[in-house]
Design brief:
With about 325 residues, the protein is α/β, with parallel strands linked by helices. The protein has two domains: about 260 residues, Vaccinia Virus protein VP39 (Rossmann fold, 3-Layer(aba) Sandwich); about 50 residues, no CATH class. It is about 35% helix and about 25% strand. It has twelve helices and 13 strands. Strands 1, 2, 3, 4, 5, 6, 7 and 8 form an eight-stranded mixed sheet that branches. Strands 9, 10, 11, 12 and 13 form a five-stranded antiparallel sheet that branches. The radius of gyration is 20 Å and the shape is globular. The chain starts with 8 loop residues before the first helix and ends in an 8-residue tail after the last strand.
Length: about 325
């Protein structure tokens, strides 16, 4: 399980302020209706109809989308430490969770552009970004536009589409990603729900981006087709704490939830590191830690023995989704 990524304090405080005077029962009913709509694959334009719907979404889904996006962008920072974007395009931004995550990791981002087709999301995102300590978010350019017809503009160092492509029809998806890649000056991050459907669509887009000259930096250690076969699929998870209101609106008792997600990060340059990746939760067995890896030559299973104390100590700190350095006898 990847490390928890809670929303930054300023964002959490802004959400708490928006809750002042709001009837919890009404928000809970809105959250339930919204959840049913998403499960039925209704677009957000049908499920988010007013400011109260947007607030219910913020309380129930923003923490999870923030956590997943922050997890992906943090791995990009770790794998490509020389990448330090000065500009960001948050495409299909929703409530700007990707912008908040990016600014927490790269606080020197100077220019931010957000666009979404939902006026309800954009209105609430505007209120949330004004509470950010980052000047780039306070002065962000906010545009009302659909992913199917994204706004024109110059290249941004980092383009992120987080939980946005899932609503795009299959036939429109290639054109959308082509447009996003055109605006990606250095990197494009696509983060989607961790379902077999969304993973399969990402794999199609991955091959399209490779054909356009992109270098896949994460999570893959190679440019060949994904070696996983159904019913398996590549996805990861991050654990996030639930606030009291979060639990209330979801009708849940557990103090945390695990958000599953799939993703790809494409670079224009430099050539990314080719390290194996842990693609399932590590399993602690009698003799050591068992790992399932996606490596340069495909799927590999390996065990780090307890008797190998230095390696075992290090691997105990590793999590599902982390990179892993195979020994020379395993990794050509």
């Amino acid at each position: 399980m990847a490390a928890s990524s809670s929303p930054p304090a300023a964002l959490a405080a802004a959400l708490d302020k928006l809750l002042d005077g709001q009837p919890r029962k009404e928000l809970q009913a809105r959250a339930q209706r919204m959840s049913e709509g998403f499960r039925a694959r209704k677009p957000s334009s049908e499920t988010i109809r007013d400011e109260t719907d947007a607030l219910a979404y913020a309380l129930t889904r923003l923490p999870a989308t923030y956590a997943a996006t922050a997890s992906v962008l943090r791995r990009l920072c770790e794998e490509v430490p020389e990448f330090s974007p000065a500009s960001l395009l948050d495409a299909g931004c929703g409530l700007a969770s990707a912008s908040f995550a990016a600014l927490e990791i790269w606080p020197d981002i100077a220019n931010v552009e957000l666009f979404d087709r939902s006026p309800q999301f954009l209105a609430l995102a505007g209120r949330l970004t004004q509470a950010s300590p980052h000047a780039a978010l306070e002065r962000a350019r906010v545009v009302a536009a659909d992913l199917r017809a994204p706004p024109r503009g110059g290249a941004a160092d980092l383009v992120v589409a987080s939980y946005a492509l899932t609503e795009i029809d299959d036939d429109a998806l290639p054109g959308v990603v082509d447009a996003l890649w055109t605006r990606a000056g250095r990197a494009l991050a696509l983060i989607e729900p961790g379902t077999p459907r969304d993973y399969a669509r990402l794999m199609t887009l991955r091959q399209r981006l490779i054909g356009a000259g992109a270098r896949i930096a994460l999570p893959c250690p190679h440019d060949r087709p994904c070696p996983l076969t159904a019913p398996d699929w590549c996805h990861f998870a991050t654990r996030l704490a639930r606030s009291r209101d979060h639990k209330l609106l979801k009708g849940a008792d557990a103090p945390f939830e695990d958000e599953k997600f799939s993703y790809i990060v494409a670079l224009r340059d430099p050539e990314p590191a080719r390290r194996a990746r842990i693609i399932a939760p590590p399993r602690l067995g009698k003799w050591g830690v068992e790992l399932r890896l996606c490596a340069s030559q495909g799927i590999e299973e390996t065990t780090i023995a307890k008797r190998d104390k230095p390696s075992f100590k290090n691997i105990r700190k590793s999590a599902w989704g982390d990179a892993f350095n195979l020994g020379p006898e395993s990794e050509p």
